[in-house]
Amino acid sequence: MKYLVIKCGGSVLENLPRSFYEDVVQMHQLGEWTPIIVHGGGPLITSLLKNLNVETTFVNGLRVTNHDVLDIVEMVLSGSVNKLVVRNLVEVGGNAFGISGVDGGLLKAVPTSDAKTLGFVGEVVGVNQSVIEGIVNQGYIPVISPIGIDASGQRYNINGDIAASAIAKALGANLCFISDIPGILIEKNGVKTKLDKATKTTIEELIDNQTIYGGMIPKVKAAIDGLVHNIPEVGIINGFDKNSLIDYTAGKDIGTKIVLEEEIA
Fold this sequence. Notes:
CATH architecture: 3-Layer(aba) Sandwich
Number of strands: 16
CATH superfamily: Acetylglutamate kinase-like
Shape: globular
Strand order of the largest sheet: 5-8-2-1-11-15-16-14
Number of domains: 1
Radius of gyration: 17 Å
Oligomer: single chain
Number of helices: 10
């Protein structure tokens, strides 16, 4: 069984077309690839925090998370956003099962090394893959919200890109980040051009010169970490293009493929 972990950020999810969900369901029904969706929900979280007058700040693309913020993050991610994705899949004929990283100890988490700054932001130290396999074996597409939990029951806000990478590592799955752009864009002669491939060194240079910034930083770092640890391939594709997921799984030249240096000839 070939798994494909599909990461959808919150800013993309709000506007993804019906065709994206049709692609996921078609992939699931064809059976060659088993899709697993991991989603974010940043803009909806920010909007609700603002409405409730709860301050929110970011450090290197990660949301600083205290107790009050954590409650709202979980409410939005595991509640409204998770069920929205499930409903959208059901509407186009799919079978989907929504779950949080807290359920069944799916995402085992510890505080990040920057816990003093970031608060209850976690990193994943273990994935209970039997939970995912159980859902898949019953014929469902898993839809996972990135909230983690430790042995004492403390919850952690996990960056969705990092959670997706951890799940892909545990399953030996390909990892595909869904974007609203065709891949990593660089400027050549005043024109934005898509990189077909990007190596670890290239990505580090693009972070240093701020071509890659903000929320894209944890995305590409999670991609590189994943490639070092068991993920066969990482891609960034435009989920707004019809058949983009189907084309990606068919091996067509689409999006940006992130690779390690030794893989490029």
